[in-house]
Amino acid sequence: MDDFDFDTLAVRAGTARSQFNEHSEALYLTSSFVFESAAQAAARFSGEEEGNVYARFSNPTVSAMQSRLAALEGAEGCVATASGMSAVLSLVMATLQAGDHIVASRGLFGATQQLLGTIMAKFGIETSFVPATDLNAYREAVKSRTKLFFIETPSNPLTEVVDIAAVAAIAHEAGAVLAVDNCFCTPALQQPLALGADVVVHSATKYLDGQGRVLGGAVAGAKAITEEVFKFLRTAGPTLSPFNAWVILKGLETLRIRMEAQSANALALAGWLEAQPGVARVFYPGLASHPQHELAMRQQKSGGAIVSFEVEGGREAAWRVVDACKTLSITANLGDTKSTITHPASTTHGRISAEARAAAGISDGLLRIAVGLESVGDLQADLSSGLRGR
Asked: Which of 61, 140, 181, 364 could disulfide-link to 315, CB 3.0 to 4.6 Å?
């Protein structure tokens, strides 16, 4: 389906009908598959014959979801995983070994920072964290054993925008691979592979599902990389369930429509927040005030649906805003059609050190909103009471 547009791929790619010729994609709830003979079983297990073997690493519903996401990202291959973090883990474990080195942008999701900086260090894999937008810092961090560059753009929660093409050039000059966490934008707004990245990582839990229903993750990119990730998943088993794959598959059908509508709401809310008393700063790539606004508008189709802002008065004032919300959901998840609000310093980034939070620019007064599909006026009214100290 290479000649089809994004919207057609979102509803048609990966479709494979069974003997019943169903219109909607089938959900295959089975742990294993039956073979016609011992010889066929042996051929399937060895890979000499294509076909499903065992649901830890092969299932028609999961395969459909993988094919559709690969088509949307323009990837040669895709491997679905149980969660976004298992996607990051699978990529690192499949492609690196003890003694290897990672260069990562400092503004990563808190759990990703923990995984790369603390857990992988136990296995002899070192990570150097650099300022997300400082290209010289990426160059200076390169070591002889640097194998992977890992960036998240826009970043969580400050929406820093990394120049993907520039970092890709630095990584490739060093003989390394560039991985991009594309969770905030999704392929509907940004396609890192087209900008020079080698692999994309997703928390499908977020916008790919789009309604906060299931967990899921994915690694999509060059075939040589996704094949190694598949080998790891086949043995280690951080597998996406068929039901979750089916839910995400259906979510992909409305991805562009949702992303465009939520981005429009986010832009309107961000502009309103800039004018509110007690708001020290707003972080949103779609605003002209954002430091990387021009870059964002070059490599993204819009500013996205995440708005972060810093209130005067530190944690006490920030918590007051959160606690006053009656419409926005107080939860750390994002990507839902329902708007959510969280205090990153005590939730998503609460497990990293205070020094690391300070280095990443995550203050006690920072709040993050994942803007959904509600009326922007209702969201503004919900935030007003907390901002006014009522």
From this structure: 364
CA atoms of 286 and 129, how far apart (whole Å):
26
Cα distance between residue 270 and residue 276, in whole Å: 10
Counting residues of the chain whose pLDDT is more than 90, the rounded percentage is 89
- pLDDT per residue as tens digits for the range 53-79: 999 999 999 999 999 999 999 999 999
User: What is the average pLDDT across 194-212?
Assistant: 98
What are the φ/ψ torsions at residue 231 (nearest 5 degrees)? -60, -40
Homologous superfamily in CATH for domain 255-387: Aspartate Aminotransferase, domain 1 (3.90.1150.10)
The residue-averaged pLDDT of 146-160 equals 96
CA atoms within 13 A on the CB side of 111: 12
- pLDDT in the model for residue 205: 98
Contacts with 238 (C-beta within 8 Å, 6 or more apart), sequence order: 81, 82, 83, 86, 89, 90
Query: Is it true that the peptide bond before 60 is cis, omega within 30 degrees of 0?
Result: no
CA distances from 12 to 1, 17, 247 (A): 9, 11, 15
Position 110 scores a pLDDT of 85
Nearest of 67, 145, 42, 45 to residue 101 by alpha carbon: 145
**pLDDT recorded at residue 1:** 66
Average pLDDT over residues 155-177: 97
Q: How far apart are CA 387 and CA 367, in angstroms?
A: 12
Domain boundaries, the chain: 6-252, 255-387
Number of CB atoms found within 10 A of residue 343's CB = 23
How far apart (Å, rounded) are the C-alpha atoms in residues 186 and 173? 27
Distance in angstroms (rounded) separating the CA atoms of residues 111 and 344:
12
Please compute the mean of the pLDDT values over residues 102-124 and round it to a whole number: 94
User: By C-alpha distance, which of 287, 295, 254 is closest to 268?
Assistant: 287
* Whole-angstrom distance, CA of residue 35 vs CA of residue 53: 8
CATH topology of domain 6-252: Aspartate Aminotransferase; domain 2 (3.40.640)
For residues 132 and 164, is the Cβ–Cβ distance under 8 A?
no
Look-up: residue for tokens 């894999």? 125
pLDDT above 70: residue 390? no
